[in-house]
């Protein structure tokens, strides 16, 4: 756990953040500044600074993040209408909290063309 990292605090349940899901490797919770009707963060419990800091040994964790996002999209009812999965990487890529996390974004009303 990284000292002063808000996502480490959330992942280790040191805040009052409501967790939508958790297991031994990750936690899931709503983004506090959502960009869509559904905006969920999937966060590993282990502190990894960014995608650039992943190692080959982290491949199972990355797969678990994505598969959990898929399951959460189904649970949120947006799996058929569509959604985005986003990793922001470093300052230039929009990363604001330097603890690896995956955004699940969706739930927009679809317009018939």
Top keywords for this entry?
single chain; 113 residues; alpha+beta; HIT family, subunit A; five-stranded antiparallel sheet; 5 strands
Write structural notes for this entry:
With 113 residues, the chain is α+β, with helices and mostly antiparallel strands. The chain has one domain: HIT family, subunit A. The protein contains two helices and five strands; from the N terminus they run H-E-E-E-H-E-E. A hairpin with a 3-residue loop joins strand 1 and strand 2. The longest helix is centred in the middle third of the chain and has 18 residues. The radius of gyration is 14 Å and the shape is globular. The protein starts with 5 loop residues before the first helix and ends in a 7-residue tail after the last strand. The mean pLDDT is 95.
Q: What kind of assembly state do the chains in view correspond to?
A: single chain
Note the beta-strand portion: 15-25%
CATH class: Alpha Beta
Kindly report the CATH topology.
Answer: HIT family, subunit A
- Major sheet details: 5 strands, antiparallel
How many DSSP helices? Answer: 2
Quick overview:
With 113 residues, this protein is α+β, with helices and mostly antiparallel strands.
Give the helix/strand layout.
Layout: H1 6-11, E1 21-22, E2 26-30, E3 38-44, H2 59-76, E4 83-86, E5 102-106
Antiparallel strand pairs: 1-2, 2-3, 3-5, 4-5
């Amino acid at each position: 756990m990284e000292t002063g990292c808000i996502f480490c605090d959330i992942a280790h349940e040191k805040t009052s953040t409501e967790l939508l899901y958790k297991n031994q490797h990750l936690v899931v919770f709503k983004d506090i500044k959502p960009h869509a009707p559904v905006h969920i963060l999937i966060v590993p419990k282990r502190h990894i600074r960014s995608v650039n800091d992943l190692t080959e040994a982290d491949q199972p964790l990355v797969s678990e993040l994505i598969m959990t996002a898929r399951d959460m999209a189904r649970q949120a009812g947006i799996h058929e209408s569509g959604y985005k999965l986003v990793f922001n990487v470093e300052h230039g890529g929009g990363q604001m909290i330097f603890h690896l996390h995956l955004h699940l974004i969706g739930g927009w009303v679809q317009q018939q063309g």
